[in-house]
Amino acid sequence: MPMIRPLLSAAGLCLSLTLPAQALDLETLSEGERALLRDEIRAYILDNPEIIMEAVAVLEQRQSQEQAQADVDLVKVNAKALFNDPASWVGGNPEGDITLVEFMDYRCSYCRRAFDEVAGLLENDGNIRFVVKEFPILGEDSVLASRFAIATLQVAGDEAYKSVHDALMTYSGAMNETGFSRLADTLGLDANKIISEMNSPAVDKVIADNHALGRRLAISGTPSFVMGDQMLRGYLPQDAMQQIADEIRAN
């Protein structure tokens, strides 16, 4: 005798079909029973289209959670290169309870937009350690600018690097020896000494190491940030970064 039995569809719907008891195994359904099941699923979805959006929202949330956990794992594996690389400049509060790492490109418009946001965050929070990763990806001018900044750090030290870094974030001149000489002179730096080191093996290594780290972290654009154990992919305003910092501390 036919029986009414609930079936769980692939769409997550609980349906009732009039099927023989021995046919409850979906793999044993006849073509007619499968057609009936498909018709009932279709009718239910058409009557309740909102479940599609609900399913999409659940999927997106699940994927977001999986990506966040994958990013946490990537940060953990690459922690030394991210947070304790002696070749990277450290600013903000060197003793801060949270470290913010930025992968940036001087020709990136969003990096330039984020520049003031990051500066405001570091000033207002006062307890964030800031690490800059030179990550030139937008052509030869980007590479030249990073070479000039890295050479400055290696030749003239932290304060000189910060002056050059800040200047390059708003710089609109030529990315060549003449432009860099003028910029260095304006900042009171030894232009010849810095420029002579721009193509050194030490500068090559910094850029190569940062690109290799970016590949390991699946970074394909700038700006990209790491705060604590979280990857923040893309531009974020100051208040959003502050909220994340507060959440990290709270947890």
From TrEMBL:
Residues 1-23 form the signal peptide. Gene3D superfamilies: Glutaredoxin. The keyword Hydrolase does not apply. Residues 15-250 form the Thioredoxin domain. GO terms for molecular function: isomerase activity; oxidoreductase activity. InterPro entries: DSBA-like_thioredoxin_dom, ScsC_N, Thiol:disulfide_interchange, Thioredoxin-like_sf, Thioredoxin_domain. The keyword Isomerase applies. Keywords: Isomerase, Signal. PANTHER family: THIOL:DISULFIDE INTERCHANGE PROTEIN DSBC, THIOL:DISULFIDE INTERCHANGE PROTEIN DSBC-RELATED. This is Protein-disulfide isomerase. It comes from Roseovarius lutimaris. The lineage of its organism: Bacteria, Pseudomonadati, Pseudomonadota, Alphaproteobacteria, Rhodobacterales.
